[in-house]
């Protein structure tokens, strides 16, 4: 996890240093595609080990892949929160972000439990395939929800609070 987290930090810093192009939804979808494609490489570790790659090299391969697969995680998370923020009324922002954080925690816990069961019953390669499969599922859900997401974005932009510039009272004195 530490290596994937390190990759995520590097990815977040690199992604944050650039200017965003396109809609938040498109950026989020693109990052889910990148993440799913990167995660497809994880089962290669088990396959390489079974093919005779020495354990030390298997660990190097695993470490490299974990850093690589971590690169799109922080950017995808940032775009996810940005998208939720754009769809949510200002007075509901705390609940929306708390909900997203809760779903992430529940998903991580459920994913770990499922991965353990799959590893026990089908082996490590199958368990290592799950992150890519679940990311692909998230991509499909996001694409199928494009209409409702777009509809939620339009009123959010229209209902954005307008804060007028304060005008001084007549009695205010200015030097």
| Helix/strand/pairing category | mainly alpha
Mean pLDDT: 89
Which band does the percent of strand residues land in?
Answer: under 5%
Quickly name the level 1 CATH class.
Answer: Mainly Alpha
The CATH homologous superfamily: MFS general substrate transporter like domains
Largest sheet: none
> How many angstroms does the end-to-end distance come to?
59 Å
Series of H and E elements: HHHHHHHH
* Total count of domains: 1
**Poorly predicted runs of 5 or more residues:** 162-175
The tally of strands reads 0
Q: Figure out the total of helices.
A: 8
- The third-level CATH topology is Growth Hormone, Chain: A
Q: Give the fraction of residues assigned to helices.
A: over 70%
Indicate the CATH architecture: Up-down Bundle
Radius of gyration: 22 Å
> What general form does the structure show?
elongated
How would you describe what is shown here?
With 175 residues, this protein is an all-alpha fold. The chain has a single domain, classed as Growth Hormone, Chain: A. Helix content is 76%, strand content 0%. It has eight helices and no strands. Helix 1 crosses helix 5, helix 3 packs antiparallel against helix 4 and helix 6 runs antiparallel to helix 7. The protein starts with a helix and ends in a 17-residue tail after the last helix.
